[in-house]
Amino acid sequence: MAKNPHCEAMSNAPQVSDQDSAARTLDYPFPDIPPGGTTITVAPGVHWLRMPLPFGLDHVNLWVLDDGDGVVIIDSAVKTPDVQALWQQVFDSHIGARPVHKIIITHFHPDHVGLAGWLHEKTGAPLYMSRTEYLMTRMLCLDVRAEPPREVMDFYTSAGWSEGLLSEYRSGGYGNFSKGVAPLPTSYQRLKDNDSVSINGVAWQVIIGAGHSPEHVCLYSSALDVLIAGDQVLPRISSNVSVYATEPDGDPLADWLRSLHKLKSVPDSCLVLPSHNEPFYGLHERLDSLISGHCAKLERLARQLEQPKTAYETLDTLFGRRFDNTMVISMATGESLAHLRFLEGCGLIERRAEGDIDYYQRTDRPALTRQNFIKFSESLL
Description:
- By secondary structure, this protein is α/β, with parallel strands linked by helices.
- The chain has helices at 5-9, 81-95, 110-113, 116-123, 131-142, 150-158, 163-171, 252-262, 283-303, 315-319, 326-345, 370-378; strands at 40-43, 46-52, 59-67, 70-74, 100-104, 127-129, 189-190, 196-199, 202-209, 216-221, 226-230, 271-274, 280-281, 349-354, 357-362.
């Protein structure tokens, strides 16, 4: 798929982030993965299917829920002929003649929303999304240009990219989001925080998160003790949390940490159904691990900024390795900026422009430890 931060880097490719060894201590009750076009039942009336992705992260988990005489589909995978063929197998082998009552999409990234419009056309089922995720999808499908706009190039210039990187990025074009996303219907049903969605006579509470995407939908059923987590909680990898040119002064890491703390309201006993990797038990342990991992990066980054650095120059500090792929570099730069914006908001670093390039340096305030950052993050709620 062509280079475009809204198509691939925002397509839920969290492999840039550090893997957490604590993920190995979680309980994974389903050792088998559903083969393509088939499902595995993970809770009463809740069925797991997995679809391939043409990205570095090679799969996405989707869910089909029984709903009386029909079903509800949660997430859709990216638009490719292979995935459409696998969906047809699911209809033939699992759904059959049953009607699809709802299509629920957790967020706007192509591996989640890609075939939502196609499924709507195929089944006539109404689409359920949060408002921001629906509007982001509609907007990005229309944003097609021959090359990246000036604001995007200025954004990566200010982050300290070399002329070679900028040229390579520019040559990839811009606005290819729609290549992986079928057009959405022109109407939808809005999902809001604390809404209750009835599926198969069971109430599912809507929990809205942010940071990885602006208004991400999670669903929790207390009757089943199941959390459909989307990308808000992944067991083995950490979702990409980035600043983008569309909101260059945003603070998505604060939104992300706030959302992780918010999810602690869900009982730790629940079965977590993530969009990547396998279903697991150990929600609170995983939330604590994700929070601690980001706070460790904040501590490490703040201590390394005694001398001014660009966002690009901090990548080694944050990730401990170099990247040679422009798209992955753009994702890593976005993550770096997310951590830098958070430190700015805490008053621990300051930003100074020299020409077109931004430099970041510690202020004279004492550096915080990881534990201090964790305590501070708790106050965000």
